[in-house]
């Protein structure tokens, strides 16, 4: 029984670590769930559960993280800004 508990704890620790990696890449919860499922075959429910626990334990961090994510332009918005800049620049 101890081996099962320690393997579960190791698995949760792995998911926790992978979520931190997703945060480094500025991913939201849904993006992280999709990425971990696609690349590590981790059930999205597991990722969601661990993410929610991390949010509970680090409320201020996640509030600031979400505010910062909203301020960062999307790839589409960035491309539009570059096109606008180029259209105003004479080459």
Description:
InterPro entries: CHP01589_pln. It comes from Brassica napus. This is BnaA03g00550D protein. The chain is mostly helical. It has one domain. It contains five helices and no strands. Helix 1 (2-24) crosses helix 2 (29-40), helix 1 (2-24) crosses helix 3 and helix 3 packs across helix 4 (59-71). The relative contact order is 0.09.
Overall mean pLDDT score?
91
Count of the domains: 1
Our count of helices gives 5
Largest sheet: none
Radius of gyration: 18 Å
User: How many angstroms does the end-to-end distance come to?
Assistant: 70 Å
Helix- and strand-based class?
A: mainly alpha
Low-confidence stretches: none
Q: Based on DSSP secondary structure assignment, what is the total number of beta strands? A: 0
Given the C-alpha coordinates, what overall shape results? elongated
**Percentage of helical residues?**
over 70%
How much of the polypeptide forms β-strand, as a percent range? under 5%
Written as H for each helix and E for each strand, in order along the chain, the element string is HHHHH
Protein name: BnaA03g00550D protein
